[in-house]
Structure prediction request, 186 residues.
Amino acid sequence: MRMKPTEKLIQEHIVIHLMLSIMLIISESIKANKVFYTNDVEKIIDFFLNYVDKHHRSKEEKAFYPGLSSVHSSIVHYPISSILEEHLTGKRYLNEIISCVENCKIGGTFSCEKIADCMKNYVQLIENHIQNEENTLFPFANAAMCDNTQKQISEQFILIDEEFEAKGESEKCTELLSLLTDKYLN
Prediction:
């Protein structure tokens, strides 16, 4: 039997949780020591912009949410609009982190507290976002969507995965996660 779309998204959440753990460790280190490796933070941001925004969220926004909306349940519209707003808030945090790193690299003024807080806020936002999806939205989706709708969404996920892999992004993200896991979690 084919994996449900929600199961595929949950598998990706595991990868995202791991990178969020690394980001939180770096954030705590910045708070305590006022230093960080700009290169590592840039790589983490690149991971979130590619793996999370362009890959994972692409599945959600282009396939999963539209498929769920096709159920025509009024209860779906509020959670989806709230989730999409969280996606935008997350992008704002990432942009703020990018700005702080750039200022640091050129010797400009930046606040270690600000970058650490943005990183911590991003982690909290995404952790809460994932928890809400997995505990509320996904069980609802599994109950509300028929097998055919789930199959169509899964087929769209495969296309998105193939495009991501064809660009070499999947391997790049896996290697980066492995490298940073060894550096910060082991």
Q: What stands out?
A: The chain is about 85% helix and 0% strand.
